[in-house]
Amino acid sequence: MVAVALGSGHRGSELLAAYCSGRGEPGDMEVAAVADLIDRCGGRAWAVAQNLKHMRLAAGHLQKAGPPPGLYDDLLATGARYLA
């Protein structure tokens, strides 16, 4: 996610690179600023898209395995909670 944000070409990616090259422990405000930069540079959108892609693949493989319908539904619901 951070690598995608750094390579996005977004104008904030240079500032993000500067934060990443810093030394020491970041403060709360710095952590919040970096998280915002990652989001604005497309890191979050990429991560969500990857999660959805892998959930679809997992659901397809799970369906081919033929678990009982209740278990299949429960597993998909559990996975979907992590995407919210």
What are the salient characteristics of this protein?
75% helix; mainly alpha; single chain; 84 residues; elongated
What does the model show?
- With 84 residues, this protein is mainly alpha-helical.
- 75% of the residues lie in helices and 0% in strands.
- The longest helix is centred in the middle third of the chain and has 23 residues, at 43-65.
- The chain is elongated, with a radius of gyration of 18 Å.
- It starts with a helix and ends with a helix.
- The model has no long low-confidence stretch (mean pLDDT 87).
Give the % helix. over 70%
- Helix tally equals 5
Mean pLDDT: 87
Termini, distance in Å?
17 Å
The parts where pLDDT drops under 50 for at least 5 residues are: none
Count of strand segments: 0
Radius of gyration equals 18 Å
Structural class: mainly alpha
What fraction of residues sit in β-strands? under 5%
Helices and strands, in N-to-C order? HHHHH
Oligomer: single chain
What's the short story on this structure?
This protein has five helices and no strands. It has 84 residues and is an all-alpha fold.
In terms of topology, how is this protein built?
Blueprint: H1 2-6, H2 12-20, H3 28-40, H4 43-65, H5 69-81
Helix pairs in contact: 2-3, 4-5
